[in-house]
Structure formats: structure tokens, C-alpha cells
Design brief:
Order of helices and strands: HHHEHHEHEEH
Distance between the termini: 26 Å
Strand order of the largest sheet: 2-1-4-3
CATH architecture of the largest domain: Roll
Helix content: 40-55%
Strand content: 5-15%
Shape: flat
CATH class of the largest domain: Alpha Beta
Radius of gyration: 28 Å
Largest sheet: 4 strands, antiparallel
Number of domains: 2
């Protein structure tokens, strides 16, 4: 029996139960192939629930581990080129862009906070080639950029950029910049090792499965 994919199942548990009862009363049954798929889905769902519970209760990353990793692998966090930390605003027209620049030049914390929230702007670190050509040339020219730049028109709109900090080539990325990256790397490494250990343990506990899990 083919299932019409254009018919979406209702999300109401009551409706689902009523429909299930109607199907049972009318003698409808899943084909053997569909029963296998349902069983496989159930196995995958329960297996993944167990895996996530197992991992979450055993894998954690501490600040000391992150700090030790950073110190040990510090050369890996050396900048290969100049970088600039900026606030980047992209506006639809030059008047709006100019008003943003004027607001930034007030250097008022409350005004700045409101502006960032309104335009959903957060600080970001950019490298040569990350920005449109006119901005790239401005940020990575002969002298380090400073202050509030723009408005600068490109095919995407009008840009206003505030330069927060300039990082020269061969300087080191701070721990605050790479904290999340290091944390995720340590987590993935721990999770991979624990997963391998778990699979070895389960293979010994439940021997006899072939490559298809049968």
C-alpha cells in the first residue's frame, strides 16, 4: 500500500489515536517493508537517546583544560596575516548609513548599545578577502585603519564600519577569541574516544552482529 506523501499527519495526539483506532478497526496493517522501517526508526531513535544521555553524563570540558590546550598549542593560534576586529553595519541607503555613522561618533554607550541591538550587529574579526573589494582595500591598506569609516557604497548597499582593534600578522589570537573553538575541539576529541570505548564495550556485551547490525 503506497502512502500519499501529500497528506501530512496531524500533530494532535488525540487525532492520531482516533485515526489509529479507525485503521485497526478497518483491518489496515503495515506492509512488512514498512514494519521493518518502523522498527529501524525505533531502534535508531532509542539508540541515539541512549548515546546522548551516555555522552552528556560523561563528557565535559573544564576551563583548565581549555587554558592548558591554548598554552600547549599556542603556535597554532598565530595570525597568518593582518586582521581587524570591527562593527559592520550594512544599510539600504546612504542617509540611513550616515545616521548610523553620526550615532557611532557620539561614543555614547547607551546609543551604541541601542544601535547594535537595532541592527543585530556584533563584533567580528575579518581577514583580507572577507569583505567586498572597496572595504578590503580600506581595512588592509598601507596604514592600520582607525575610527568610524564610511558610508561606503557597494553592490550590497552602504557600509559603515567601526574599527575596534587591529591585529598585525604574526600576533597571537587571544584565549577569549579561540575559547569556543578550543572547547569544541576538546569536546569532539573526548566524545570520539568515549564513543569508540562504548562501541567496543557493547560489541563484547552483545556479540554476533554482522556489518548490517543483524
Amino acid at each position: 500500500m503506497a502512502v500519499d506523501s501529500s497528506v501530512s499527519l496531524t500533530s494532535s495526539p488525540v487525532a492520531q489515536n482516533l485515526l489509529y483506532r479507525a485503521a485497526s478497526a478497518n483491518g489496515l496493517r503495515l506492509e512488512s517493508e514498512m514494519e521493518v522501517l518502523v522498527l529501524q526508526y525505533r531502534e535508531a531513535l532509542l539508540g541515539n537517546l541512549f548515546l546522548e544521555h551516555y555522552m552528556s553524563s560523561r563528557v565535559s570540558v573544564t576551563m583548565d583544560e581549555i587554558r592548558d590546550h591554548y598554552v600547549t598549542n599556542r603556535p597554532a593560534y598565530q595570525r597568518r596575516g593582518n586582521q581587524v576586529r570591527v562593527l559592520h553595519f550594512l544599510l539600504a541607503d546612504v542617509d540611513k548609513a550616515t545616521s548610523v555613522k553620526v550615532a557611532l561618533l557620539q561614543y555614547d554607550a547607551a546609543v551604541r548599545s541601542s544601535l547594535l541591538e537595532e541592527h543585530a550587529v556584533v563584533p567580528s574579526t575579518v581577514s583580507p578577502g572577507d569583505m567586498p573589494t572597496p572595504l578590503d582595500a580600506l581595512l588592509f591598506g598601507d596604514s592600520p585603519p582607525r575610527g568610524v569609516l564610511g558610508p561606503i557604497g557597494t553592490q550590497f548597499g552602504f557600509h559603515v564600519i567601526e574599527v575596534l582593534e587591529f591585529f598585525p600578522k604574526n600576533s597571537f589570537r587571544g584565549l577569549d577569541e579561540v575559547y569556543d573553538e578550543i572547547s569544541q575541539n576538546i569536546y569532539r576529541t573526548k566524545r570520539g574516544a568515549l564513543y569508540s570505548h562504548l562501541m567496543d564495550s557493547l560489541s563484547r556485551a552483545y556479540p554476533g552482529l554482522d556489518a548490517d547490525g543483524k
